[in-house]
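Thread: "does anyone have the structure for this chain?"

Original post by V.I.:
We have the sequence but no experimental structure in hand. Need at least a predicted one for the grant figures.
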Amino acid sequence: MEDSVDRHLARWRGEAPFDERVEAIVTRMQFLVRHLSHTKEVALAEVGAQDRYEFETLHRLTARGGSATPSELAADLLLPPAGMTARVDTLERAGLIAARTPVPPCRTDASTRT
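Reply from O.Q.:
Generated one for you, tokens below.
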């Protein structure tokens, strides 16, 4: 059964120097990645997460037992602490995490809970 990838290969056969098997695999993988990305975005929207970054943050928070400081989450996700504080603020406003409990008088050291 012919699909769009087969037609793509046929159009370029003899015109561009490429291995057809590799081109077919890579092109189909690109379609699959697009499909999975869209499916994940829809699933995230259903639970109120705006994007995969919010999901990753919630995932890391859950992996830490449901409580972590923005600095700990930032280290887990390889982000600057200030960027994580903004992300946690967004999740808190969306009601996806509980209000933070200040440790010392510094927002970046507040404990975050799911």
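V.I.: this helps a lot. DSSP finds five helices and three strands in the chain.
O.Q.: and The beta strands are 67-68, 98-101, 111-113.
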